[in-house]
Specification:
Layout (H helix, E strand, L loop, with lengths): L1 H9 L2 H11 L6 H19 L3 H5 L3
InterPro entries: DUF5989
Keywords: Membrane, Transmembrane, Transmembrane helix
């Protein structure tokens, strides 16, 4: 549990959003938000490196 609290405190606004969803008992939205964050990081990573053609073929 200590690891989870440390992760949320370092994650900024995404951590605040996940904390809000947890406290408001909206647990069913947490996987949806995590997938959206994952896609966002994937797109940022694809633009910053040379692997963009390989990632774009997945979609």
């Amino acid at each position: 549990m200590k690891f989870l609290k440390g992760f949320v405190s370092r994650s900024g606004e995404a951590g605040e959003l996940l904390t809000f969803l947890w406290k408001a008992k909206l647990w069913f939205l947490i996987p949806f938000v995590l997938v959206l964050l994952l896609f966002g990081f994937l797109l940022i990573f694809a633009q910053a490196t040379g692997v963009a053609p390989f990632i774009y073929t997945l979609f």
